[in-house]
From TrEMBL:
The keyword Membrane applies. NCBIfam families: GGDEF (TIGR00254). The keyword Transport does not apply. Keywords: Coiled coil, Membrane, Transmembrane, Transmembrane helix. The lineage of its organism: Bacteria, Pseudomonadati, Pseudomonadota, Gammaproteobacteria, Alteromonadales. Pfam families: GGDEF (PF00990). The chain crosses the membrane at residues 366-384. One of its GO terms (molecular function) is diguanylate cyclase activity. This is diguanylate cyclase. InterPro entries: Diguanylate_Cyclase, GGDEF_dom, Nucleotide_cyclase, Rev_trsase/Diguanyl_cyclase, TPR-like_helical_dom_sf. It is an enzyme of class 2 (transferase).
Amino acid sequence: MSKCFQTFFALLFFFYGFEALSKSTSTTKLQTKRFAELPAKLEIYKKAVLATYDLKLLPNLKSLEQEAQAVDNKSVQAEALLLVALLKHRYGDYRESLTLNQAALDIAMELRDPGLLIKVYLSIVGLEVSLERFKQANEKMQKIDLLMAKLPAVSRLKAKINLWKSRIYFHQGSYLQALYVLDSAINKSNANKDVFVELLIEKAKVKLRLGEHIQAQNLLDQIAHYNIGNQYQYTQLIIKVLKAKVYLQAGLFVKAILTAQDALKSTFHTRFLEQQAELQHTLASSFAQIQDYQWAHLYLKRFAFTQKALDLQKRNNKLLQLEAKFDFEQQKQQLTLLEKENAIKQQQIMQQKQAIENTALTQQRIILIVVLLFTLLFFMYWRWQSKRTLNILEQQVAERTQELALRNKQLQTLSYTDSLTNSFNRHFLFTHIDEYLPQGNFSESTIMCLIDIDHFKQINDSYGHSAGDVVLKSFVKVLKSTIRQNDVVIRWGGEEFLLIMPNISRKAAAEILERIRLNIEEYDFTANNERISVTASFGFTPIPLVPDKSILDWEQTIELADFCLYLAKNGGRNAWVGATGLVDHEPFDAKSILRDTRALITQRKLKAISNCEDIIKSL
């Protein structure tokens, strides 16, 4: 009988053990299957993010991160966090993006995977570059350089690292260093098609910034061979932006306008705000070149508005980082206070225990006095600490307000200044022109003078564009040293400048222009230890053209000055020509003056003067 019971219990034990083992095995197989499927899902979502940057992908990415965490696939979990951080970064949520990058960095440090660590650091570098924190970006790149030694000899990450190095150099203005890194990466690149296209795009940007639009066009043609129809929407937009800039530099202004307007249709979204600003600036420059100043002014205003929104977004995110740092310090102070409170409470408990043990009324009174004393001291300390914290906060707010005011002033100055010559730009003219025009009474004159460097293209071709840049800087230096203190020099475009001389007579203006012409002719222009001979031609017109009469507005006045500049250049260059006024008894409107300028000068109905009388006589 006992053997039967033993057999029964043995069978029962075997049955339940087999069932438990079966369940465990099936669970393990399911987890293994899910673990193996995660990398494939990650690649699908990665392509979707890079193709569209659509926020609708966030729930899917968070779900993928949770699945990876559930099956302990930390590598997929970290890369999912990086994709979410990239989306947050693209939509301007830099604070959340930084938090997600830090979470991914913690996982990568735990895994000690150099490839994953480099991906995380590159993501943080992109964030730092967007916030213009180049010092922190370079520190991360130094860490990446140390990790590169642990990578295989052939690694696609190396091309990505060089890409970000070149971007940092580009944003810091080190274009030749950026070009060197890009050439090295392209020549040795074993990256995939997308990264190689990014390298070519970055090189095209550098070439455009250096003014080498033909080489930039060749790079864009090379990109077109990589089946542009299959490229991501963001990449296609960047290529259109670059094409528009190439056309602008090449002087194909209509093509630049059409390309920029076509690209602008796909930028009306916050994730493409930077490209929208670039396209608006390109359109403003192109319309200005074809002398359609109404559209140029419109797009310039839109560019200023978009740029202001970008600057505000960056400034707000920097403030958020400061607020996060302040919140951390505040929590630290609260923890210190709590520790002190706990210490005081523990002391009170010990005193109460002693009072209970001794049960003496005197001791109880002493304990009560001690408690009251500590309470008073704590209250006084709390009041002092609160006042001290308030003073620190007020000081920080005042410093931040002062810093923001200084930044805004610097930004305004940058928007009005030509970066190469440090003279004013067209944006300054459109904003402040009314301040330099005669007000009310037309007895005062403002001279509008267009100045063009003679044979500047030959200088660029013979000595190089860097020498041309040196000539432009020295040219503006000579102008500023010769003109009056209240005169204004504006870079009108390329080697052409606009000189505004308010409250001056025609004769005095002619004398100043002659001094400028002689100073330029005699100035020692040198570049690369070579002397460059430079002369300039001038064309000027006063506003108003006739005293006490407003015939031409300031734009028409500049157009008349441009015709005078044409006469000076056509008459042999290194000369000035000025249309100084109409014969009083001859009534003319603006259109007839601008249309029949040559005939009016020939008929002596429009007064013209020049340092070279043969120019006037030859008309």
